[in-house]
Amino acid sequence: METSTVRERLLEHAQTLMQLRGYNGFSYRDLSTLVGVKTSSIHYYFPTKEDLVLEAVNQYSAQVLHDINGIDQTLPAAKKLERYGKLFAKVLGEGDQICLCGMLAADIQSLPDAVRLAVQSFYRANEGWLARVLEEGAAQGTLLMPGEPQMAARALFSAYQGSVVASRLFNTRTRVTEVTGWLKAK
Amino acid sequence: METSTVRERLLEHAQTLMQLRGYNGFSYRDLSTLVGVKTSSIHYYFPTKEDLVLEAVNQYSAQVLHDINGIDQTLPAAKKLERYGKLFAKVLGEGDQICLCGMLAADIQSLPDAVRLAVQSFYRANEGWLARVLEEGAAQGTLLMPGEPQMAARALFSAYQGSVVASRLFNTRTRVTEVTGWLKAK
DNA sequence: GTCTATAAACGGATAGAC
DNA sequence: GTCTATCCGTTTATAGAC
Questions:
Q1: Is residue B6 part of a domain?
Q2: By C-alpha distance, which of B49, B130, B121, B118 is closest to B82?
């Protein structure tokens, strides 16, 4: 049963293509083949490629942040971090995708400022969430958190982003979950 | 005084272009303009773009690993890690470049297997070096190292790679050095 | 909304003169 | 070694029919 609109499928496949190959690594033709409409029809919905990437990143960001905020707030901090790590591992898909915002951050010099702002916003939201969990975990004595929470959260988020890239590079799924394990206080 | 050969300048600029925009984000034409030779001359040295990226990554890897192995072995572990962090921060250049191997890891789905192997080799060398330093630092009580040294080293290297991407995204240089500070035992 | 047709620039790559 | 000239497919994008 195919209920989604052409517009929705375009956004979905554009997102996946960028997670696989980056902004400069896919074309309207690729998208055209996947969705089954001509490239001129894509321009009807998204006049330029920059329009397309901007909508894709905003939708992706909203979805992921919704999932993160869906993590049960009453859980102990270590458990919350575990759930977060599992969400992060899920972006790998069949093992060949990385986080869209991590990819666009790598491609940032090819992208308009509106995309930079959207990606920055995604980074800050994740770092803020992680900072609160780390602080809680430090208070509970279950998570290591040397230094300020915000600083540790930035380093930790960088580690998660780097770990999905490395996981794909080595064809393994373990590197993401290793990051979570790393923080558990001994 | 211009002593370097055309071949050397091609490799140098190709490296920088990829650190800025990635494998799919630059062309022989860009390189042609920068070096001042026609694109057909580039093909004389590097028949295909894949030949070019492979030589560039091998040269980059050798240079960086040489710098890392140049860190004084008699230094205390915490000091070694500090030096390593400074080397990593240097790849930012004018603030707009990331590690070539981090970029190619993001672009890995567009690249031939020989490049994947070269990038994997770079990752393993860095992780091995970091593992030894972390183990030494844990023994000296100056560095935090929960879990196995190799696991912690993989997570740490991911954090460094992610931190240069984030540093460029936010137009700051601090995020790389924060990673080093994070590990210092309190 | 989706198509055909086409534009105009760019992509990597090659042949052959000098 | 470097150039001119060129091939040919690709890329983003537009005009206009249906």
A1: no
A2: B130
